From TrEMBL:
Broad class of enzyme this protein falls into: transferase
Domain Sulfotransferase: residue ranges: 88-350
The keyword Transferase appears for this protein: yes
EC number: 2.8.2.-
SUPFAM superfamilies assigned to the protein according to its UniProt record, in alphabetical order: P-loop containing nucleoside triphosphate hydrolases
GO MF annotation list: sulfotransferase activity
Gene giving rise to this polypeptide: LOC120258322
Name of the protein: Sulfotransferase
Family: Belongs to the sulfotransferase 1 family.
Organism: Dioscorea cayennensis subsp. rotundata
UniProt xrefs under InterPro entries: P-loop_NTPase, Sulfotransferase_dom
Amino acid sequence: MAFPLTISFTAKTKEEEDRQKQMYKRYDELILTLPAYTQNSIMLPESIKDSPSEEKLRQYRQYKGFWFWPDMMLPGFMAAKDHFIPRPSDILICTPLKVGTTWLKALAFATLNRNDQPCKQSLLLSHNPHDCVPNLEVILYGRKRLPDLTVVPSPRLLSTHVPYQLFPTSWLSSGCKFVFLCRNPKDTFISYWHYLNKLIEDVNHKQSLGDMFDAFLKGVHLNGPLWDHVLGFWNASLVNPDKVLFLKYEELKSDTAVNLKKLAEFMGCPFTEEEERDGVLEKILDMCSFESLRNLEVNKTGTMPLKLSHDIGNEVFFRKGEVGDWVNFLTPEMAQRLDQAMEQKFEGSGLSFKE
Ligand code: PAP
């Protein structure tokens, strides 16, 4: 496989392909036995009818305490959990949705590959960051066939939206590194609300802010409860700071250079004094800025291969890119409820999202 994505698959014979299809079928069967949240209530598996693909965006399944899209994420995660073998040199970008993953992927990719691909020749100029740093559960293992990742040269830069608590021992003991990014929960929620309603084409199925807000506070949020997702990585970063780097979107915004240096050091490729003098860091920051990425042709007109009935334009990943946009959507009462809930959840952890 070369990056960006041309995935080669492990199955070389028809028999092996059939065996893998059977395996994915078993995952699907298991997923149908999981509790679901749909149409604003948690439903038991037996009461859920098979639903069209768009409805599956509004329906989550709960797997080991976390909520997932049943179609687009869970089978892929189950396959990755059982078959992905991390190398000690791998770097995994780990995020809940809508916290700045696209940006972090661009920064990490540009930094890690800066010798082979100086900014002027970067693949990021012609490919969306999600194509350069593929996601394990949605893209690589989400196609009902196992990808052959052994052909990818080290260090492999991959990503996942799966919470730390669900990582199998094989990932945790592999020695690979995890870079985690999170964001103020109010902005995360608002960004996700916009995103979901972009993915849902049918106007009758668009999600109201109020319904989604109530669900969010109950913990029903893609790859959430958000607080558990964040705390999983937070606690791991305290125990194992060499293996888990914990970053916040707001800090990345307010001092991108400092955080980029931190990221480079963590990935094992610190910027040299000479590089700093030559402005290598600034060039990466410029190339990965919201305006630069958003204005690239590929991000204005390109599309993303999500398993939906319609194409998703790459522009969906570049909405506003601001801190505090929640204020334009949440009432003061909603904001207060969310703040209080988060304060409670994070109490005693040493983690906060004070503004
Ligand atoms: P994903 O989970 O679908 O990959 P993700 O990239 O994590 O999405 O989050 C998208 C958010 O990051 C968007 O925030 P908004 O909805 O509040 O606007 C998007 O605008 C923002 N974003 C994307 N690229 C950048 C960037 N280069 N700098 C800052 N923010 C960015």
